[in-house]
């Protein structure tokens, strides 16, 4: 017989017996033996090798492998022909590969440390009874059979069966997704495990009362742990940026290897020496591989993650920065994300109308009665108690009603699960008063009068009760949580022996409290931005369909005239196949109510089958599988569980939907900026490749050495690329539709623009000055020049300086796709100004500073020739500006 199924059916003595425990608790020896047998009460799976695998992964991308292979070739060339500088080049290439890998690993490690700081959801210590004494233990030391003591404010550390209860109320939202308080009992119940009111589950919060419970499941055996395991079993797909980067790396690697191998073989057949061919092959590879691009990618993502953090969006995986910007659909929960996760009174209604009570005396009487039936304590000037009671107290203060009671004999009857109401006695305006609040169906039979504002209210009629029924239904259908409040005056103060049943007679219905979890004020504007950005928002909640519809209407997920037929419940969803669900989503259904964890994941997977990039929000354990299955899992930082946060890539520090939209804008900006600096970096590949092609095909000197190419890729191009990565969001970026999964970072248009337009322009102008310096120095076509020849050093120096200067014009032009880039924002980007200054100073220093000349193999040129290199800036900027103007004119 399975005790997990039966535990809720047993009486107290049987509970102790079945779990091998007793009212005095386990002995220390029993607890130690069980701890050895079942293990610690934790759901975390420790992977000792995860960081090692992460570091190893940084060395396995194509660019890194290619750089390491090039470094190896340099070592071989140095061995075959010493003194050619290949050792230094090989060390530089290996150093670049190592630094890039370590930098990427460092960012992942930093994000992991941030996650570890957040994993504090389950309680650190708990109180248990062992050997008939109360002990304070670490929660992970709990074992089945332990007798746990629960108090108001505690977080339940394991699945437990209640054996003693005093007004115990819990919030099961972390597990079920529903924030409604649940009153517990110690009596046996005949219901399924997850619906049993004599059980409390790991991760849930004790709102009120106290009690004792026997632990029956710990660690991965809890409902909490089962969902955690399910989330770990879900494999997250490769992020959009990872696919884009891999695609780009494959293309550039094939180009580099193809050209390198082709011209190596050409050199062999032409009779060139082996070491010379190796040097040449390395040069072709280095010229085609933008060595600084991947570090710049990582840096741009890291800077984007910092900007997101300032907007309360914590990124635990760098690729999620860009992935969030690619979002096409947001699947959001309700409580705490769209709403404030607190109950508030939206309306005070009389017995026979859904409109707000206007009469001041009736409003005051209704609130006083509600307070009389509430139990609120003030701790450090904060209200403590049931969320409903706190909402009543806040409304009373807003209407300037006193919460203080001067009656020492005040009685309170806690919420009773069977009666579905709470009650109390207090002195109101000097008069002893009894009041109840709770479910309408439980208070209806107790009524004798309706409060209609007159001193002598007549007896209630059946017709009036039917009108009150209608008021209750209309408020509930509007998405409110509705409580009925009734009361009566007492002839004298009740005695200690007076029972609740004795007092509950001849009551007068004061009216109804319509409570709601208020919408966050900034959410409607955020949802409007989603619509403008072409992002679909779908509400998936465990709440009642009427509540879900009311929230969706009020915040703008669906139009105000949307009917309840546009809602799909979990029961209906269960009957649909994946194909049928895809049809439903295609039809435009945007509200799913009463959903289970498996159904949330089913919705996410159906959307992904439609090639949608899906972001999923969640805070509870029940959300973890869907968070892991989504392209971008977004967990709540304030109210979320550690399992939800561990399953997510993004954590909202303020639990606010509006922060998601701010993050999407930042993510789109990061990707847009990545395209900018990818375009910028690849332009310099053109003037780096063409000299090698001319060198192998024609009897001319090589215009750029490999070291000089590395100066461009790893030196002067890095700072401007970082500056482009810091460009602020374009004002129109959230008016553009989201890009699809097939949108390429390295698109054919970008390749043509980089290599065959701007790259070719840079190559022609820089090589033109190279041959101009050679020609004016007396060089003849076909003449060989030594690498130490002053004329050759001057010619190669002006080539490098020209490329650096032309990259300034390219940099400013890359700021916008359709605008020039010469606006006020240019001077505000200090990093860009610094990058421009570095390009200018370096272009001058490599020609006229002796130490740099010796390092790079360059030489000086006459000032008029250096000034001709400056003409490359307006040349490339103007040519690109003309292209933009023609593109805009055609559009």
TrEMBL record:
**Leader peptide range in chain numbering:** none
Annotated TM spans:
59-80, 86-105, 251-272, 278-302, 745-771, 791-811, 831-851, 863-882
- Establish whether keyword Cell wall biogenesis/degradation is in the entry: no
Which branch of life, at top level? Bacteria
- Which InterPro entries does this entry report, sorted A to Z? ATPase_P-typ_cation-transptr_C, ATPase_P-typ_cation-transptr_N, ATPase_P-typ_cyto_dom_N, ATPase_P-typ_P_site, ATPase_P-typ_TM_dom_sf, ATPase_P-typ_transduc_dom_A_sf, ATPase_P-type_domA, Cation_transp_ATPase_P-type
Q: According to Swiss-Prot or TrEMBL, what is its membrane topology?
A: Multi-pass membrane protein
Ordered alphabetically, the record's keywords are: ATP-binding, Cell membrane, Membrane, Nucleotide-binding, Translocase, Transmembrane, Transmembrane helix
GO MF: ATP binding; ATP hydrolysis activity
Check the record and name the SMART domains matching this protein.
Cation_ATPase_N
- What would be one Gene Ontology cellular-component term for the protein? plasma membrane
Q: Where in the cell is it found?
A: Cell membrane
Show where the Cation-transporting P-type ATPase N-terminal domain sits. Answer: 6-79
NCBIfam families tied to this protein: ATPase_P-type
Q: Which family does it belong to?
A: Belongs to the cation transport ATPase (P-type) (TC 3.A.3) family. Type IIA subfamily.
- What is the protein name given in its UniProt record? Sodium/potassium-transporting ATPase subunit alpha
């Amino acid at each position: 017989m399975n005790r997990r199924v039966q535990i809720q059916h047993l009486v107290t003595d049987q509970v102790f017996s079945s779990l091998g425990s007793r009212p005095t608790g386990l002995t220390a020896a029993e607890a130690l033996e069980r701890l050895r047998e079942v293990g610690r009460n934790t759901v975390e799976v420790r992977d000792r090798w995860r960081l090692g695998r992460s570091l190893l992964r940084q060395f396995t991308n194509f660019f890194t492998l290619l750089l390491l292979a090039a470094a190896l070739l340099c070592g071989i060339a140095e061995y075959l022909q010493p003194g050619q500088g290949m050792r230094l080049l090989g060390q530089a290439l290996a150093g670049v590969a190592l630094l890039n890998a370590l930098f990427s690993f460092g960012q992942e490690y930093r994000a992991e440390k941030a996650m570890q700081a957040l994993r504090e959801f389950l309680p650190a210590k708990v109180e248990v009874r062992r050997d008939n004494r109360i002990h304070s233990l670490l929660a992970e030391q709990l074992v089945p059979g332990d007798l746990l003591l629960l108090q108001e404010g505690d977080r339940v550390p394991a699945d437990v069966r209640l054996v003693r209860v005093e007004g115990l109320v819990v919030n099961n939202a972390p597990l079920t997704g529903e924030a409604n308080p649940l009153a517990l009992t110690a009596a046996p119940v005949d219901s399924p495990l997850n619906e049993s009111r004599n059980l409390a589950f790991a991760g849930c919060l004790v709102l009120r009362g106290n009690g004792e419970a026997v632990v029956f499941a710990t660690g991965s055996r809890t409902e909490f742990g089962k969902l955690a395991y399910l989330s770990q079993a879900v494999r997250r797909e490769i992020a959009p940026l990872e696919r884009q980067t891999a695609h780009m790396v494959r293309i550039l690697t094939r180009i580099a290897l193809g050209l390198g191998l082709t011209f190596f073989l050409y050199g062999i057949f032409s009779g060139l020496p082996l070491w010379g061919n190796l040097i040449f092959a390395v040069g072709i590879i280095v010229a085609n591989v933008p060595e600084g691009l991947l570090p710049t990618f990582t840096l741009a993502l890291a800077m984007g993650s910092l900007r997101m953090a300032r907007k309360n969006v914590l990124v635990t995986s760098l690729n999620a920065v860009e992935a969030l910007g690619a979002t096409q659909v947001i699947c959001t929960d309700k409580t705490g994300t769209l709403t404030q996760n607190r109950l508030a009174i939206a309306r005070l209604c009389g017995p026979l109308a859904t409109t707000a009570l206007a009469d001041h005396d009736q409003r005051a009487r209704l609130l006083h009665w509600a307070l009389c039936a509430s139990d609120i304590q003030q701790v450090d000037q904060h209200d403590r108690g049931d969320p409903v009671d706190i909402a009543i107290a806040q409304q009373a203060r807003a209407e300037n009603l006193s919460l203080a009671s001067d009656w020492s004999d005040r009685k309170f009857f806690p919420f009773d699960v069977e009666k579905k109401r709470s009650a109390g006695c207090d002195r109101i305006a000097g008069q002893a008063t009894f009041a109840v609040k709770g479910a309408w169906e439980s208070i209806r039979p107790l009524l004798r009068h309706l409060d209609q504002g007159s001193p002598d209210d007549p007896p209630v009629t059946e017709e009036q009760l039917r009108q009150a029924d209608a008021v209750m239904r209309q408020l509930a259908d509007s998405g409110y949580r509705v409580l009925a409040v009734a009361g009566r005056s007492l002839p004298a103060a009740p005695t200690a022996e007076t029972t609740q049943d004795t007092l509950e007679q001849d009551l007068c219905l004061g009216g109804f409290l319509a409570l709601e979890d208020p919408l966050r004020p900034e959410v409607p504007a955020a949802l409007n931005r989603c619509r403008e950005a072409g992002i679909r928002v779908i509400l998936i909640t465990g709440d009642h369909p009427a509540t879900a519809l009311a929230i969706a209407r009020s915040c703008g997920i669906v139009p105000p005239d949307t009917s309840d037929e546009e809602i799909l419940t979990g029961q209906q969803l269960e009957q649909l196949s994946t194909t049928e669900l895809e049809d439903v989503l295609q039809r435009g259904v945007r509200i799913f109510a009463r959903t289970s964890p498996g159904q949330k994941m089913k919705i996410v997977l159906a959307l992904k089958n439609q090639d949608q990039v899906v972001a999923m929000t969640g805070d509870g354990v029940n959300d973890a599988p869907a968070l892991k299955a989504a392209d971008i899992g977004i967990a709540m930082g304030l109210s979320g569980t550690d399992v939800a946060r561990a399953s997510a890539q993004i954590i909202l520090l303020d639990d606010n939907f509006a922060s998601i939209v701010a993050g999407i804008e930042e993510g789109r900006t990061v990707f847009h900026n990545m395209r900018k600096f990818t375009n910028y970096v690849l332009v310099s590949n053109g003037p780096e490749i063409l000299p090698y092609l001319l060198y192998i095909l024609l009897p001319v000197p090589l215009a750029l050495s490999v070291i000089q190419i590395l100066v461009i890729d790893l030196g002067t191009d890095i700072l401007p690329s970082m500056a482009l990565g810091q460009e602020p969001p374009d004002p129109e970026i959230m008016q553009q539709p989201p890009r699809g999964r097939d949108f390429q970072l390295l698109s054919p248009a970008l390749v043509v623009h980089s290599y065959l337009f701007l790259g070719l322009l840079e190559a022609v102008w820089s090589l033109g000055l190279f041959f101009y310096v050679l020609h004016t120095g007396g060089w003849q076509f076909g003449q060989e020049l030594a690498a130490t020849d002053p004329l050759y050093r001057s010619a190669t120096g002006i080539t490098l300086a020209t490329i650096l200067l032309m990259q300034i014009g390219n940099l400013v032009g890359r700021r916008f796709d359709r605008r020039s880039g010469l606006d006020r924002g240019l001077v505000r980007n200090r990093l860009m100004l610094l990058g421009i200054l570095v390009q200018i100073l370096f272009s001058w220093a490599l020609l006229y500073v002796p130490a740099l000349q010796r390092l790079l193999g360059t030489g000086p040129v006459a000032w008029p020739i250096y000034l001709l290199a400056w003409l490359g800036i307006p040349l490339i900027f103007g040519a690109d500006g003309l292209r933009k103007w023609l593109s805009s004119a055609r559009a």
